[in-house]
Amino acid sequence: MADILQMHDLKPAPGANKDRIRVGRGEGSKGKTSGRGDKGTKKRYQVRPGFEGGQLPLYMRLPKLRGFKNPFKKEYQVVNVAVLAELFPQGGEITVADLVAKGAVRNGFPVKVLGDGEVSAAYTLKGVKASASAKSKIEAAGGSISED
User: Fold this and answer.
1) Which neighbouring-strand residues pair with 79?
2) Which Pfam family name is an example for this entry?
3) Is the pTM higher than 0.85?
4) Tens digit of each residue's pLDDT (9 = 90 or more) over 49-61
5) Which domain holds residue 90?
6) Adjacent-strand bridge partners of 130
């Protein structure tokens, strides 16, 4: 019966593994300069990353970053009352899900209603924030806004 090939029987193909080049071990094999060329800084030691030969480095030429990014900032999707009047001309109760269904906003982001435009119908907005002008226009038309 033939032997089954096993992991410990595997070995690299002939010539696949070369010996590493041992530099600096005599003139016959990469001796003397060890592949670093003649003279100069890079022959003697390594320079730090970002070193430009004495020229003012890029990280010092560029301006410093000012301020900071607030990690708790809330980005609202805005909808104007004119858009509400266009999408819901009959008025009624409007939720974020209704706005998503009509394509006015994307799902998963908070919504804020702004006061650009005119309101003719009474809207009951739920789960949205509203600017002062939007709130006054909606309430003047007989509507209401709740943020919960």
Assistant:
1) 113
2) Ribosomal_L27A
3) no
4) 889 989 999 999 9
5) 77-146
6) 113
